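Q: Can someone sanity-check these two? First one:
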Amino acid sequence: MIQIGQFNTLEILRDTEPGLFLGDPEGNEVLLPNRYVPESFEIGDTLEVFIYLDNDERLVAVTDEPYIMNGEFAVLRCNEVSNIGAFLDWGMVKELLCPFKEQAFPMKKGGWYLVRCYLDEKSERLVASSKTNQFLDNTELTVTEFEEVDIVVSHPSDFGMNVIVNNLHSGLIYKDNIFQELSIGDKMKAIVKKIRPGNKLDIALGQIGYRNIEPNAEKIMQELDNNSGFLPLHDKSSPEAIKESLEMSKKNFKKAIGSLYKQKMITIESDGIRKS
């Protein structure tokens, strides 16, 4: 079955005047217009193409890569606002519509908004919504503590930064676990630090506990190499100085240098640490 809003691997069936007709094993066909046809091809070859509805509401295949696909979240720019909604730039010829009813607050031309792309079942059109919470559900979690996950930074709160976990769940990075600049729409790897009552997810940008020693130790060694083998940081340094230099907490710093010291990779001096 051809999936709208996704990349599909389809077989070249025939070459026609408007372009190549591609098909799937179930007998479904879609046109790849001439502007996207590769210089060389053979009937029977397969192509990876993105499927959506063109300006004439016809199913079409393209080789362009969109900024967002069906079921994903991304920050997109509003190019125009009309009487039916906002039109967003998602890297395709036809812009992505965000209807007024799907706007968390009114969008303006030139603004950037975190949205989810989804398939409207009635029209079979791909549309966007900035009411992102409606797509998140923590009732049945698909993640466990200490598991590595993909996150999208959603919006700040009084406690820290809300994030979207694996495109499915909501999570929170508490302020004291943020050691780098975060912007809405940032995508990165993170760790499920803790699952609280009610299936609330505490998320950490680094690894947890003993899992955190090796990455932080490696980072410290890299910084030592970048600074002639010496860093003016030690266990008496302020948390602010450590955060500014290494983007990690003082607790994690002390664990990491303790590990490096035991491995005789550093020496700890009165004014800092030195590579052995």
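And here is the second, same format, sequence then tokens:
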Amino acid sequence: MSNNPIVTKLKQLKLSHAANYYETHYLTPSNPQISTVQLIDGMLEYEINKRHNNHIDKLVKNAKFRYNKARIEDIDYSSKRLSPDSISHLLEDEWLDRHRSAIIMGATGTGKTWLACALGIHACRNLRKVLFVQAADLYEDIILSIADGSIAKTKQKYCKVDLLIIDDFGIGELLPQICPVLLDIIDKQSTVGGLLITSQFPIERWHGLFPEATIADAVLDRIVHRAYPITLTGESMRKKLAHVIN
């Protein structure tokens, strides 16, 4: 640990990144001397960039993505599974600000979850709060919170983010007691941010997933009519990977 008084004071001011920059770029004998203005500018820029990146890392961690390394830049458009134009509107903040939805459909293994995570991480990089949850886990969370009386807290958890991602809609049983809570969550989320849903099932089959037609109508009305649909086609990515490994 450095005993330099400037380093000590910077750390006391909670400018630890600036302190590291000072040690690296000023106190190291092998580095060329820089002007005071250059030093201060470099320290402040380094502090700002580090805080920015740490904030993004925290947003990604809190989102609980299934694939936390998925990146938009890593999409392989050459497979023709997806075109740049089909997701271009989801790379801007406008759809979140307008509280719109996105629906990613496709057979199992076509990369729906990975793409949802990539879009979610892209939103985190734009400093948006995101929460990822698999539909079956969401349903279980609702059932447990009904049982222990914490349903209000559970609703709040899913309705205070800029983007809520529900993965694998249609997997897991939609029990009658779940449906009103799910409707409430989706209704509240539609007033605060965006909603992204992935599903193996085409939209025309979603209504039949609900035990009650009235709630089905209400939920789908809040999702489908203002949604950006994306359909992934082609052979299962998992199957292709298995062939490569074998």
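A (reply): Looked at the second one. The longest helix spans residues 36-63. Residues 240-246 have pLDDT under 50 and may be disordered.
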